[in-house]
Structure formats: structure tokens, C-alpha cells
Amino acid sequence: MKKNDRKDLRKAFILVDYTYDFVAEDGKLTVGEPGQAIEKAIAEKIQLASKCGDFIFVINDLHDEKDLHHPEHKLFPPHNLEGSEGRKLYGSIHELINELEKKHPDRIYQLDKRRYSAFCGTPLELILRQEGIEMLELAGVCTDICVLHTAVDAYHRGFKAIIDERAVASFNGDAHRMALEHFENVLGFEVLKSY
Questions:
Q1: Residue 137 and residue 82: Cα distance in Å, rounded?
Q2: Would you call 60 helix, strand, or coil by DSSP?
Q3: How far is CA 42 from CA 24, 61, 150, in A?
Q4: In DSSP terms, which residues pair with 190 in a beta bridge?
Q5: Are 127 and 119 in contact (CB under 8 A)?
Q6: Superfamily of domain 3-192, CATH level 4
Q7: Could you state, in chain order, the average pLDDT of each consecutive group of 10 residues for the chain (195 residues)?
Q8: What residue spans of the chain are helical by DSSP H?
Q9: Helix (H, G, I), strand (E, B) or coil at 12
Q10: Is 74 helix (H, G, I), strand (E, B) or coil?
């Protein structure tokens, strides 16, 4: 998609799983340094989205340690548990979102998800449709898991999307690169390169 094709589209910035458990050094399922390294880019993107009057969605995992039938139970250690500090947004992003939510409560949404995709079991699509949003910018972690599943669902629902490689990260460098290629070559989304 060319930049000129998106200038008149209503846009939303969607931040996926940028929480303490996924990013902090001692998080329960941390990406670690790659996740920490994207904090500044994410903050800049949130500030720009706010300045442009775009909608901002913060969508995070919510898990219950007693839910033994959840598909992730056998795949990953318990993380983003209800009521835990692990669900708190990481670093400066926590305060930034809180400040913007006070200023623009009509444009900031914080949603909980229980599966990889931000669309699965959330009112995300309904809100996007009612606001006439056609263009999404995706950021957060993990590039090849929750961001990828969100991107695939966005594609199936007919949304256009942008992913800046400076604002996504993963545990696995090879999988991160594969996901970026998938966004661009299979979904036809715009991937902003850092080089």
C-alpha cells in the first residue's frame, strides 16, 4: 500500500501485550531486551496518534491461573494473571496511557483479551466499525504470536494495517523476521523498515 492510499483513512493505533510480564527483565513470560528496546518508539507513536486525533487501543492478555483448559496453559508459564502487577503496562507507557486517558477518554480504549488475537472475544471490531476506522497501526509483543494473530484477523476483516519494525519485538529473532515478511508479503500490509 502506498502512503498516498492511506492519507484520508481514519486510523487507530493498537498496542498489543506491552505489559510487565512480557517485557520486564523479571516478567513471567518476558521478551526481555528486545521488548525493552522498543519502548521509546512505542511512546513516540502513541504521542503522535494522540496529536493526530487517532484512536488508541491498549489490548492485553488476561489469564486466570485456575483455567486449566485454556490452550496456552500447556504452552507457557502463567502470565498476565488477573489482579497481578504483571498486567501493568511496561515502563513509561503505563503513565503515558493514563495521562492520555484522562485527557481524551473518548479516544483511548483498554481492552482485555484471552486469546492471541486482539479481535478474539473483544469488542475491538465493533468499536472500529462504529468509528469508521479503516487503517490500523499495530505495535507490541510478540511480533510472531499476538501481533501476528491480530494482523491476520485484521486482514480477514478487511482492515488495512501498518507495522513499524521498530515498535514490535519477539523472543525469537528468526520468528520476528518471518512475521514481518508475512505482514508484507502475505497480508499485503505496509511494514516500515528501520534501515
A1: 27
A2: strand
A3: 15, 18, 17
A4: 162
A5: no
A6: Isochorismatase-like (3.40.50.850)
A7: 59 96 91 97 98 96 70 68 84 97 95 93 97 97 97 98 98 96 98 85
A8: 20-23, 33-37, 39-51, 92-103, 124-130, 148-156, 173-185
A9: strand
A10: helix
Question: Domain residues of the chain, as ranges?
Answer: 3-192
Cell of 129: 466499525
Is there a contact between 11 and 135 (Cβ–Cβ < 8 Å)? yes
For cell 493498537, name the residue. 14
Cα–Cα nearest to 49, from 125, 122, 142, 136: 136
- The burial class, CB within 10 Å (0-12 / 13-18 / 19+), for 23 is buried
Task: Tell how far CA 37 is from the center of its chain.
Answer: 15
Q: Is 137:164 a contact under the CB 8 Å cutoff?
A: yes
How big is the chain, counted in residues? Answer: 195
Q: How far is CA 96 from CA 52, 56, 87, 112, in A?
A: 16, 12, 16, 19
Plot region of 83 (φ>0 → left; ψ -120 to 50 → alpha; else → beta): left
Distance CA(116)–CA(98), nearest Å, equals 24
pLDDT, position 87: 84
- Whether the CB-CB separation of 82 and 67 falls below 8 Å is answered with no
pLDDT of residue 62: 81
**Is beta strand 11-16 parallel, antiparallel or unpaired with respect to 135-141?**
parallel
* pLDDT of the residue at 4: 43
Which pLDDT score is estimated for 1? Answer: 45
Cell numbers for 188, please give them. Answer: 499485503
